[in-house]
DNA sequence: CCATTATATATGTATATGCATGTATTTTCG
DNA sequence: CGAAAATACATGCATATACATATATAATGG
């Protein structure tokens, strides 16, 4: 057992690195659908919310509003989502899935599900739950800094 | 205790989300130095290797060679690194830190160290070690898929 | 030694992402 | 009510990232 000094390895850079590795796996396997995991994830979230505004989606995904605007525009160009004005508030745009978007989501879902199950099983459910909880803790810790 | 079905939450999207949150903290605190964590991390790696080629750095950081080329060019424009031809191999470019790069790294290091210690302590050393190991496991799992 | 193959880097193109800022609309408050 | 503040979205600019591909150089095999 080597005694690693974890503090010498950048928490952020390490997380980003693993993030890239995981992203490439998802993207590669989703490739037949033409979706990237970022796009799949956004479609899945819209589907889950049924209809959601740009800024609200940003809050959920912790993405800047401007990022949502652009990413959603890509999905719109592909015909996967519709943008409509909120009748109650002319500033707000409401995002919904189109029929084509729902179909694309359904097409990609089984592939996504397979990767999920495979990777979680390989990590081991127990370990993955701990991992998941620590990720959640990290987010909370950082958000608590912001409130200072 | 609510029984969450972890398989319904995208491993990749979740990891990317936390990655963003952590990155924003590091970037915010590093801002006085003008470095982003990606840049700091790259400088620190070059420093650690003393001198390294573009593709070798890509292997270490698991970044595409083209990404290294571009990111290094930014660091070069800022005068933090030098690129020289490898006398043994005219294809290869050798990256080294300039004096200015070393100074910048030294300027940023204490800030980086503070974030590191703070965040790892807040997570808790024990938990963080488990977390770190699981991240490593995930990388290995995914790399094992690629060999198939 | 030369042709083929492999390797190292660069470039074109595209998505993802954030910050600063601009514009339009709504809300608040004197 | 009307001006100021807040909110929602869009745009300009910049970095990070990957894939496909081009270019230059080295290595290899006949």
* Helical content of chain A (DSSP H or I, runs of 4+): 55-70%
Output the number of helix runs of chain A: 6
Biggest contact: A-B, 54 and 54 residues
What does the oligomeric state look like here? homodimer
Determine the mean pLDDT of chain A. 95
pLDDT < 50 stretches of chain A: none
Reading the helices and strands of chain A in chain order gives HHEHHEEHH
The number of E-state strands of chain A comes to: 3
Structural class of chain A: mainly alpha
Largest sheet of chain A: 3 strands, antiparallel
Strand order of the largest sheet of chain A: 1-3-2
Shape type of chain A: globular
Q: Estimate what percentage of residues of chain A fall within beta strands.
A: 5-15%
* Structural Rg of chain A: 18 Å
Task: Give the termini separation of chain A.
Answer: 39 Å
Secondary structure: elements and pairs:
Two copies of one chain form a homodimer.
Chain A: H1 11-30, H2 37-49, E1 52-53, H3 54-61, H4 65-77, E2 81-86, E3 89-97, H5 99-123, H6 125-146
Antiparallel strand pairs in A: 1-3, 2-3
Helix pairs in contact in A: 1-5, 2-5, 3-4, 5-6
Chain B binds a DNA duplex (30 and 30 nucleotides) through residues 16, 20, 23-24, 27, 36, 38-39, 53-55, 63-71, 74, 86, 89-93.
Features:
148 residues; homodimer; DNA-binding
Structural commentary:
Two copies of one chain form a homodimer. Chain A is mainly alpha-helical. In chain A, 68% of the residues lie in helices and 11% in strands. Chain A is built from six helices and three strands; from the N terminus they run ααβααββαα. In chain A, strands 1-3-2 form a three-stranded antiparallel beta sheet. In chain A, a hairpin with a 2-residue loop joins β2 and β3. The radius of gyration of chain A is 18 Å and the shape is globular. The termini of chain A are far apart. The model of chain A has no long low-confidence stretch (mean pLDDT 95). At the A-B interface, α1, α2, α5 and α6 of A face α1, α2, α5 and α6 of B. The structure holds a DNA duplex (30 and 30 nucleotides).
